[in-house]
Amino acid sequence: MLVGDLYAFQDLLSDEEAATVHRVREFLSAEVVPIANEYWARAEFPSHLIKRFAGLGLAGEERSSLLDGWLALEMGRADASMATFYGVHAGLAMGSIQECGSPEQKERWLPAMASFDRIGAFALTEPTGGSDVAAGLRTTARREGDTWVLNGSKRWIGNATFADLIVVWARDEADGQVKGFVVEKDTPGFTAVKIENKIALRIVQNADIEMVEVRVPESHRLQLGHSFKDTARVLRATRAGVAWQAVGLMIAAYEIALRYAGERQQFGRPIAKFQLVQDLLVRMAGNATASLGMCVRLAQLQDAGVYKDEHSALAKAYCTTRMREVVGWARELLAGNGIVLDYDIGRFVADAEALYSYEGTREINSLIVGRAITGHGAFV
C-alpha cells in the first residue's frame, strides 16, 4: 500500500489488478528510480529499458480504466519522463491507431508496438500552433493518386528522435479536414532533431520535425480519422492519463517530504515535530487525496462508457494545478536540499511544469469544461 494513499483507493482494485500494480511498482523501483536523476542530468534516454518495459506486458492489453490509471500513477511516481515516454507510445501513438485505424492497420502495427519492437510518437503540436492547433493546424496533406504528400513542421514531439512510427496529423488540402498519417522514420523528406536545453522532462527526447514533400501511401492514412473530432477522441483518453501521472508525482513528493521530515533534525528534534512542517504535509496529503479521488471517479465513468471531454479536461486541469502546489511545498520543506537532484524533489519541481502544460494547458482545459457547464464556447 502506498503511504500517500490515505483513503486506501487501491483497495478498489481486484486482487489480480493489485498484483499487476505491485509488479510494475517493483520494476520501476528497481530499474527506473535508481537511474532517473543520472539520465535526467545528462538529458539522455535509457534505451536499455525499452525491452524491459516490453517484459511487463502492459502495452496493448485490455484492462479496466482504474488499473490503467493506477499504472500511470505508478510511472509518474517513479519518474515523469518515463511516464511520458510510455504515455506517448502506448497512449497517444497506439491510441491513435486503435481509435482511428482500420482493422487491417491495427493488425499491421499494434502487435509490434505492444511488444516494443516498434516505438511510436504522436505529432500534433506545431511551432506556431499549440492551444489553437484544432483550428490553426498548418501541416498539409495533398493527395496524388494513392499517395499523400505531407509538408509542414511539428514541435515538442516526444520519442520522435528514435521512434519507428510517427502519427502525423495534417490538414487535407482538398476538404480542410484534419487527418492522421503513420509516417515511418526513414521516409525521405522527414527529419527529427532533438530539442536541447530543456529544464523539464529532460529524459524525454522531444524533437522538432520537418516534413518536405514526405510521401506516404494511402494505406498509411488512418482510415477512420476524418476530422479533428477523431483526434480529440484520442486526447480525451490521454488527458486522463496525465491527471493520473500528476497524482503519482504528488504522492512521490509527499512520501519523500514525509520521510525527510522524520529524519531531518533541527533544534534538537525531527522537523516533523514542528507545527508548520505538519501543516505542509497535511496540505500535500489533502491535494493528493482529492486528486486521486477525482481520478478514480473518472476511471469509473470511463469504464461505464459515459465519460466526456469535460471530465478528463477537468481532471487534467485540477490535478496538475494541485501537483504544482505539492511539489512546491515539498521543495519548501526540504529547503536547500530541495533544489538538488540528490533528493529527487528538484527534478519533480522541474518536471511538474511540463505536465502542467502539455495535453492542453490549464486555461484550454478550463474552457473545455466552461463550454460544457455554460453551453457557450469562449475559445476566441
Describe the model.
The chain is of the alpha+beta class. It has 3 domains: 9-114, Butyryl-Coa Dehydrogenase, subunit A, domain 1 (Orthogonal Bundle), CATH 1.10.540.10; 120-220, Butyryl-CoA Dehydrogenase, subunit A, domain 2, CATH 2.40.110.10; 228-374, Up-down Bundle (Butyryl-CoA Dehydrogenase, subunit A, domain 3), CATH 1.20.140.10. Helix content is 53%, strand content 14%. Strands 1, 2, 3, 4, 5, 6 and 7 form a 7-stranded mixed beta sheet that branches. Strands 8-9 form a two-stranded antiparallel sheet. The model has no long low-confidence stretch (mean pLDDT 96).
Keywords:
oxidoreductase; acyl-CoA dehydrogenase activity; Butyryl-CoA Dehydrogenase, subunit A, domain 3; two-stranded antiparallel sheet; Butyryl-CoA Dehydrogenase, subunit A, domain 2; alpha+beta; seven-stranded mixed sheet; Glutaryl-CoA dehydrogenase; flavin adenine dinucleotide binding; Butyryl-Coa Dehydrogenase, subunit A, domain 1; 11 helices; 380 residues
> Any low-confidence stretches, pLDDT <50, length ≥5?
none
By secondary-structure content and strand pairing, the structural class works out as: alpha+beta
Q: What distance lies between the first and last C-alpha atoms, to the nearest angstrom?
A: 46 Å
Number of β-strand runs:
9
C-alpha geometry: globular
| Portion in beta strands | 5-15%
What fold name goes in the CATH topology slot of the largest domain?
Butyryl-CoA Dehydrogenase, subunit A, domain 3
Number of domains: 3
From the coordinates shown, what is the CATH architecture of the largest domain? Up-down Bundle
- The whole-angstrom Rg is 21 Å
Number of helices: 11
Average pLDDT metric: 96
* CATH class bucket of the largest domain: Mainly Alpha
What string, H for helix and E for strand, traces the elements in order? Answer: HHHHHEHEEEEEEHEEHHHH
The CATH superfamily of the largest domain is known as Butyryl-CoA Dehydrogenase, subunit A, domain 3
Helix content: 40-55%
Q: What is the makeup of the main sheet?
A: 7 strands, mixed
